[in-house]
Design a protein that fits this description.
Elements: E1 2-9, H1 13-42, H2 50-59, H3 75-97, E2 118-123, E3 129-130, E4 136-138, E5 142-144, E6 146-147, E7 158-163, E8 169-176, E9 188-193, E10 197-201, E11 206-208, H4 212-215, H5 217-228, H6 235-269, E12 272-276, H7 280-283, H8 289-295, H9 297-311, E13 314-318, E14 344-346, E15 353-355, H10 356-367, E16 378-380
Parallel strand pairs: 9-12, 12-13
Antiparallel strand pairs: 1-6, 1-8, 2-7, 3-4, 4-5, 7-8, 9-10, 10-11, 14-15, 15-16
Helix pairs in contact: 1-3, 2-3, 5-6, 6-9
Length: about 400
């Protein structure tokens, strides 16, 4: 399978200027391709092929005074921009026809120089390399220092240079990796994702939600206020905007690190993991939108899935309409929905006191067919032993035991 390995880059001032030129040239070629395909569609003509666009927008354009500066960057970068444009139109048409799952995609739009995130891609044809000193050598840019946090498992097939909104540079390598199964038997677990507790496992473990965004709200508000007080288009406003972007980047990085650490631990400790397929898009339109986005459930589950495929584990998603919070994990009785403030409840059939989150995690594991027990969902034993069916007692169907109604005149 293919994975991406990202590392921080520290280009010099001159290299930053060269990268900015490459970003701009790639953006211009992309916009020219979008404009050419839109013009062909309005004229009722067939969309130009990738070869025609390459010859017209790159090869021939370099010989014109208006686009002569395209020769100052690597041709591979421009070719990849055309490839991105073609993929964007393909995704758009597949979304219209129903071939592409998920939300409907809009038509490709023009890129602007005001986009805070810029990226260019180099393939093997660009003859980029990693120097013996550990620097990234890019054509027509130079050797860029890299902070290597780990070694690459194999030779990368391509590298994408990214500049984010906070002004940081990253190199993202596409690497072919071989699965590394984890030997030994391990238990199976169900996970209930929430807001107060980020994850609750069927064996009774509760992981508190870090709430990185909530904790950083005061700093973010202060930074946002500083941006709004500066004049638009001024250098001071750009400085404050960069500070704000870095504050948001720190929150996103902390959340991503938490997801990586927790997902790796769960994959190492469990053979199979069951999670609920939550409707995050729907929850993001409610009063809990900020908390839902702060939790980042979708990114966490995606990490679980690719790490499970890499290490020979299994991740199972159950339907979002499973009544995991309404069913007793001990006897299977369904007694209806409960408000959110009810955290513990007693089953009306078996009398077992249940923890809402642990009970839901056990039901998630059962719905996925995992071999788990419901003992972790019990809070405390019932106060009295219930009578058996054959024994005498008062039952719900016994009319004589009901309290007589008050007669009205």
């Amino acid at each position: 399978m293919q994975l991406r390995y990202s590392f921080r880059l520290y280009p010099t001032q001159g290299q930053q200027a060269l990268l900015a030129r490459a970003f701009g040239c790639a953006r211009v070629v992309y916009n020219d391709a979008v404009r050419a395909r839109n013009a062909a569609h309005e004229a009722g003509e067939k969309a130009p092929s990738a070869g025609e666009l390459s010859k017209r927008l790159i090869t021939d354009a370099k010989n014109t005074p208006e686009r002569a500066w395209l020769s100052e960057v690597s041709t591979v970068v421009l070719q990849q921009a055309l490839r991105d444009c073609d993929q964007a139109f393909r995704n758009f048409f597949d979304s219209l026809s129903g071939k592409r799952a998920g939300r409907k995609m809009g038509a490709p739009r023009f890129k602007t120089r005001r986009d805070r995130r810029q990226a260019i891609r180099f393939t093997a044809n660009a003859r980029w390399s990693i120097t013996p000193g550990g620097r990234l050598r890019l054509p027509k840019i130079g050797d860029i220092p890299v902070t290597w946090s780990r070694t690459l498992p194999s030779k990368p097939s391509s590298v994408t240079v990214i500049r984010d909104a906070s002004g940081r540079y990253f190199a993202s390598f596409v690497v072919d990796t071989r699965p590394e199964p984890i030997s030994g038997s391990a238990p199976e677990v169900g996970i209930d994702l929430g807001l107060k507790h980020f994850a609750v496992t069927s064996d009774g473990r509760k992981i508190t939600s870090p709430r990185f965004l909530r904790k950083a709200e005061k700093k973010l508000k202060r930074a946002q206020r500083a941006v709004s007080r500066k004049e638009k288009g001024s250098a001071n406003r750009e400085k404050e905007r960069t500070k704000l972007a870095r504050a948001h980047a720190r929150v996103a990085d902390a959340r991503r690190e938490f997801h990586h650490q927790l997902s790796t631990q769960l994959i190492r400790e469990n053979q199979a993991i069951a999670v609920e397929n939550l409707a995050v898009n729907g929850l993001a339109r409610t009063m809990l939108a900020k908390s839902v986005h702060d939790a980042g459930w979708s990114g966490f589950v995606a990490m679980l899935e690719y790490k499970a495929a890499l290490h020979g584990r299994q991740v199972i998603r159950i339907g979002r309409f499973e009544p995991t919070s309404q069913t007793c994990s001990a006897c299977g009785t369904k007694d209806g929905p409960k408000p959110l403030h009810v955290r513990t409840w007693q089953c009306g059939s078996c009398g077992v006191w249940l923890d809402r989150d642990i009970n839901a995690a056990v039901n998630v594991a059962k719905a996925a067919g995992l071999a788990v027990t419901a003992c972790g969902a019990q809070v405390r034993p019932p106060t009295q032993v219930g009578a058996q069916r054959g024994e005498a007692g008062t039952h719900r169907g016994d009319l004589s035991a009901r309290r007589p109604r008050r007669q009205t005149q």
